[in-house]
Specification:
5 domains; 437 residues; five-stranded antiparallel β-sheet; 10 helices; single chain; OB fold (Dihydrolipoamide Acetyltransferase, E2P); 27% helix; five-stranded mixed barrel; 32% strand
């Protein structure tokens, strides 16, 4: 009897493991089904198992497939046509309908993911690039995925603000920015109010600061860079080298004398510049335009000679004379006050004015000191065959000799008058005197 009892006990012990018992398996399936049961608002990853007209069946690992249908399909627009069986898609669990079908939304799942991405951008303050998809009088619209972000006009960069239309309907003032790629940062987000505010101005300011730091580290003196003229000031021109501005001082714009940068460059112009100096501590970049141009004085002996008649424009008047720039050149020469006219004057303004064009004769060239002497009084009309002596005279002697030059001219004039009266009839004498005078 005891042996039989032992045998039955052994049979029971040798039976199937407790975990494999049908009831245990049923309970485990029930628990797994409860844990895996989708809840409203969940975002799941599913697989397209069937595609019908206006309807998608999505397997999300639940007891039955979910359905994307009706208005949710319409929101997918072109994406619906591109979907095929086997595609993996994120879905948003909405609810069960009356027939027990689980209703899903792909567009809302994408929107939820985009909102989370926007929240991350706000938290990290990372920059991103977005395309303008719409506008109104107050600003432009830039999407982060499916979420519409708004960029107020006050948060647009100065470059974007310059694109606004000043004529026509106010609602169309930002039309030129449509489809433009803008650099952005998220500055405000309120999910409950469906509010997402973006700023291009903040992003551009930070981007330029980062670019400037990179440039300051990489730029080397005497290297050549390409940039765009961004603004002009009385003291020089600012050039954008790719996010950071360098300054071309007025003296480094041209080999010639200029009064304002607009005489040489214009805003928006693309130019090559040489890096003169990089002040990493003060974060300043000094540039030069003229260093990339030929030094005009090096070729002066090949282009000009003493005695040559040239055309020039008066650029500046000083008490000892007038400066004139040669036409088509940056070379400037000095018309000493004694070379302006035969008569005695106290200031060049009595003879010439700034901006006046003149025919001048070169009377002196000093390439070592970069000086050129010009004369107005020694330019004779073409019909007269009068010979002048334009032998070079040191500049410092001109003013000292001005008085003696006038006296000598008076003596020559008197002698010429006497000679004319001896060789002409008395009746012709007045006319002769007039010619000599």
């Amino acid at each position: 009897m005891e042996a039989q009892a032992d045998f039955l006990t052994e049979e029971i012990d040798a039976g199937p493991p407790q975990d494999d018992h049908p009831m245990a398996l049923l309970l485990q399936e029930s628990d797994d089904s409860f844990v895996n049961q989708p809840q409203q608002g969940d975002i799941r990853h599913g697989v397209v198992v069937d595609k019908r007209a206006g309807e998608l069946l999505i397997d999300i690992g639940y007891k039955s497939e979910g359905i994307v249908t009706g208005r949710e399909v319409d929101r997918l627009e072109g994406d619906f046509k591109a979907m095929t069986i086997g595609d993996e898609v994120p879905v948003y669990v909405m609810r069960e309908d009356r027939d027990g079908n689980l209703l899903l939304s792909i567009s809302r799942a994408r929107a939820e993911s985009d909102w989370k991405h926007a929240e991350e951008l706000l938290e990290t303050q990372d920059m991103f690039t977005g395309s303008v998809s719409g506008f109104n009088r107050g600003g432009v619209i830039v999407k982060i995925g499916q979420v519409r972000g708004f960029v107020p006009a006050s948060q647009l960069s100065s470059e974007s603000q310059s694109q606004q239309l000043t004529e026509g309907e106010p609602d169309n003032r930002w039309m030129k920015l449509m489809d433009a790629e803008l650099r952005m940062k998220v500055i405000d987000l309120d999910r409950r109010r469906n509010r997402l505010i973006l700023s291009e101005r903040v992003a551009i300011r930070e981007w330029r600061r980062e670019q400037k730091e990179r440039l300051l580290e990489s730029l080397e003196e005497n290297t050549v860079c390409e940039g765009v003229v961004s603004s002009l000031a009385d003291f020089g021109a600012f050039v954008n080298l790719g996010g950071a501005d360098g300054l071309i001082h007025l003296s480094e714009l041209s080999w010639g004398r200029i009064s304002h940068p607009k005489e040489v460059v214009s805003i928006g112009e693309k130019i090559q510049v040489m890096v003169l100096n990089v002040d990493r501590e003060r974060k300043r970049i000094g540039l030069s335009l003229r260093r990339l141009l030929p030094e005009p004085w090096e070729t002066v002996p090949d282009r000009y000679e003493v005695g040559q008649i040239v055309r020039g424009v008066v650029t500046k008047l000083v008490h000892f004379g007038a400066f004139a720039r040669l036409d088509g050149d940056t070379i400037e020469g000095l018309i000493h006050i004694s070379e302006l006219t035969e008569r005695r004057i106290t200031h060049p303004s009595e003879v010439v004015t700034e901006g006046q064009g003149l025919e001048l004769r070169i009377i002196r060239i000093d390439t070592d000191k970069r000086r050129m002497g010009l004369s107005l009084k020694q330019v004779a009309p073409e019909e007269e065959s009068v010979e002048f002596d334009w032998e070079p005279v040191p500049l410092e002697e001109n003013e000292a000799n001005a008085g003696s030059t006038v006296e000598a001219a008076a003596e020559v004039s008197a002698e010429g008058t006497e000679a004319a009266s001896e060789q002409t009839d008395p009746a012709e004498a007045p006319e002769a005197a007039k010619v000599v005078a």
